[in-house]
Specification:
about 100 residues, mainly beta, 6-stranded antiparallel β-sheet, globular
Amino acid sequence: MYAVKQDGAFAGYADSIVPIRLHGNGCYVPCKEDQAEGFCAKMAVTIADEEGTEHQVLSDMVFHLADHTLKGTEPEGSYEEMGAALPLTDAENAAKILLGEAE
């Protein structure tokens, strides 16, 4: 699991991160981390279907690294690998407190 920041602020968690660079033909291509100009993060986002019902889905989000631009339309991002046990436990505890189930 990765914690992703956008413009210095927490943006969410990602299941996976793929380092990328901009190819000469204008496409993003995977690369080694030391060659990366940005990264693609598989993150949870909320979308609405045709009836307006919201759903959580995983979506690829592209970020450029500081001092790089890629296409110039991507937000600046950074990421940090982390274990999942602590944030998931914190989330479960917060949900219990909000739902009045805390001991």
